[in-house]
Amino acid sequence: MHFDRDVVLLITHSGDYFTIDKVAEAVSRRGAQPFRLDTDKFPIALQLQANFSNSGSNHTLEYGEHSLNTQQVQAVWMRRVWQPDLGKELAPQFQAACSSESLAVLNGFWDSLREATWVDDLQRISAAENKLRQLRIATEVGFVIPRTLVTNNPQEAREFFREVKGKMVAKLLRPLSYGMQASSFFMYTSAVKEEDLLDAETLRYCPVVFQEQIPKQLELRAVYVDGNLFVGALDASEYAESTQDWRHGTKEVLAWQPYQLPDKLIRCLDVFMKRFELLFGAFDFIKTPSGEYVFLEINPTGEWGMLERDLDYPIAEAIADALLSKSPKYNPLT
User: Fold this and answer.
1) CA–CA dist 185, 212 (Å, integer)
2) pLDDT tens digits, residue range 263-299?
3) What pairing do the DSSP bridges indicate for beta strands 257-258 and 7-12?
4) How far is residue 15's CA from residue 29's CA, in Å, rounded to a whole number?
5) Checking phi first, is residue 31 left (phi over 0); if not, alpha (psi -120 to 50) or beta?
6) Model-level pTM?
7) Are 33 and 7 in contact (CB under 8 A)?
């Protein structure tokens, strides 16, 4: 297939659906050519070539019947980078080394796209994924946050439990699952009981984030795209009280409702995004029964498909606009 210089590279994995298709369609409607790159298919089904010499460099990729030179790419949507699928033929003792090397090559390959518009820049995504930094910046821009302890000291965890009078939840700093439906291999935000801390010596091997449990009226997912905001709300009473994370504990399809954040909170969001220099972010907030909004976290590559699907929000259109707004050929849709 022939590509011109109006290619938008969509970086994802082969199990991705809905959101990736929506963005590809929105990019096509704007006259550009989407190119889907499933990172889990490298190196088995996806070939990369990087040639360097004193006169310059040249980078190409081949996927199926498609061949692309990275000089043709004007924009990149960083949706997901996935672990390589190396199949079953490779001996187990070589799997880890080959997977690590493949990811290292991918990380180096992105440099060939440095002149393209990114949503978002990889270094900025990495900086924003640090949840400790998130909490610091959140307080600096005016968000309310839960009392938080990150520790691998069991005694400190027990003391914090007493300080918050037993109203405590635990979660990981980094997600282990992605998508509109989380897999079973995921540590959901969950309530901590006193008996959980009686034998907490395993903290020595893996620090955990402990937070004061915030009473909920609503759980909010706020998707920010280059100054546009799309907010969905879940009524916390609609799922089990013992479940602290809306992604877990129910097989029912939860009813997302449209929601409007107050202007003061929106201004805080604008400043937060400028601090991290991000165009995209998926925020999680709690609205308490007293009406207070509490910041939980931002995921700079977070999920939004359920909001577009259930609320008909034009999030894919906004992402396509952000990707192509710097193109001299681009005329925004009216």
Assistant:
1) 24
2) 999 999 999 999 999 999 999 999 999 999 999 999 9
3) unpaired
4) 24
5) left
6) 0.87
7) yes
